[in-house]
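Batch job 17 of 40 flagged for manual review because the log was empty.
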Amino acid sequence: MAQRDYYEILGLSRGAADGDIKKAYRRSAMKYHPDRNPDNKEAEAKFKEVKEAYEVLSDKQKRTAYDQFGHAGVDSSAGGAGFSGNANFGDIFGDVFGDIFGGARGGGAGGNRSHRGSDLRYNLNLNLEEAVHGTTVKVRVPSMVSCKSCKGSGAQKGSQPSTCGTCNGQGQVRMQQGFFSLQQACPRCRGTGKIISNPCGTCSGQGRVQEHKSLSVKIPAGVDTGDRIRLSGEGEVGESGGSPGDLYVHVKVRQHAIFTREDSNLFCEVPITFSVAVLGGELDVPTLDGRVKLKIPAETQSGKVFRMRGKGIKSVHGGETGDLLCRVVVETPVNLSRKQKDLLAQFESSMQEGGVKHSPRSSTWFDGVKKFFEDMKFPH
């Protein structure tokens, strides 16, 4: 049977760049790999075909011979450049897929393999004033720090870690499963490349111990619930001398007794008396910067919202300062004396004499209710 053209197998033209060859191989190899197609003989055959094509086209010498003489130029039985059907696919697979599986390629640098420390999270509760104006707080967090007894080596004083004999200090070993070749952390040294025969008594060979540390955290003005502050390098120290992680301070703002925050705006309810709503007046209204005067015009209805510009919050994320929105609520008098009740009754009688001019909304509403009953033909 005639062999298929290697370029055709990978779906490429003869002038394809080296990078295109690698991409095409990566795509086809993942598609037909036996682990993805168990008990599929056709996929296995195509996988071998793709592997063979890539090994030739990825090698400049073999590719040149193939371009000039075809399969005869790379067929060892024909005396050409020689393609070995028994070539170790692990080397090819490691070169192309090493970045996916995180394995070091063959011949990579050995030595002690350090690992970055874990990030830490601290939940910080603030009151609204602290969040709006900014503050500095002290936090105490548990963290893994470098062991002072062994200076982070994990070995007892006077001794040193030795090179792992299983991985020769590489920290990783190669596992071959059929055509599938992967690198994984050495099970003996757990990826460090070192063996500690005499572990430090303080840290039990870990090179790290847990301690609590106190930090001063500057909270910028305008933060809100859900914001987080990153303190670089204040997380856990890394293993085997690795760089430390970060500390993330997550902000939560407590509920306020007066104000409700929405983005850069503040909201509050202002209770007013019936007489102030009718006759108008001035009230002292609190803001986060002190008291201000709020003028209530005569005949103000309950639920009316007054906007005080610039009395809100300037967000930590930028933008203009928000507003304070005050919603007035007319409070119904309670615990009235007999005399006060009589006066209100006289007032109500005078209101009735004035007709609809005193309560236009009520009159309109009752007219609408009457029409509704008539349209629905409810019995009286």
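Reviewer: the log was empty due to a logging misconfiguration, but the result itself is present. The mean pLDDT is 80. Unflagging and moving on to job 18.
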